[in-house]
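Here's what a typical entry looks like (MT21C methyltransferase):
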Amino acid sequence: SLTDSPVILKILQNWVPRVSHYFDKEHYAYVGHRIVIQESIEHFGAVVWPGALALSQYLESNQEQFNLKDKKVLEIGAGTGLVSIVACILGAYVTATDLPEVLENLSYNISRNTQNLNMHKPEVRKLVWGEDLNEDFPVSTYHYDFILATDVVYHHAALDSLLATMVYFCRPGTVLLWANKFRFSTDYEFLEKLCNVFNTTILAEFPESDVKLLKATVREN
């Protein structure tokens, strides 16, 4: 075989990747803007998933129903930042949050795609679901009109913490928009829990990608 060749072995031994991360630049167009997203395959959160495309498309197409101009928007599990960038283009005050290891790529994408816009500057912050919410986002100071979340539900152990985080940030008047690819029974179990806590409606379905977009609001007593 080729790998038995001393020359090939020497080449393989001497080969060192130039870059430690694999990045891919993806091009999107929303609200009349070209958006370039850098992905990293090293983190789940640094890839553009179908829910982000679905929600970006929906926000672009339904600006009268969901007018983000001058609204305070929090994205949880922002990943590559695509949805936050679209919300910023639509005029929102955006706070994009994710795990510490995703923030560098997230910040890069958001700054490069919004730096020349005459819009509110987005903020990028660490948010670990269910942890230090009162300390980092005290109720007295932080109130959001919209909570955005895409493909945050998949096979991971933090689903209860995710729900607790959604509950924490959703006050009377807050609208949670959650787009997710539904693959497994755990996805539907989470949806059931969400329906038990919030008034929940399905806004749109994207059959080609198995994505559902849901709107949830706090139940008024």
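Residues 15-21 have pLDDT under 50 and may be disordered.

More examples are in the samples folder.
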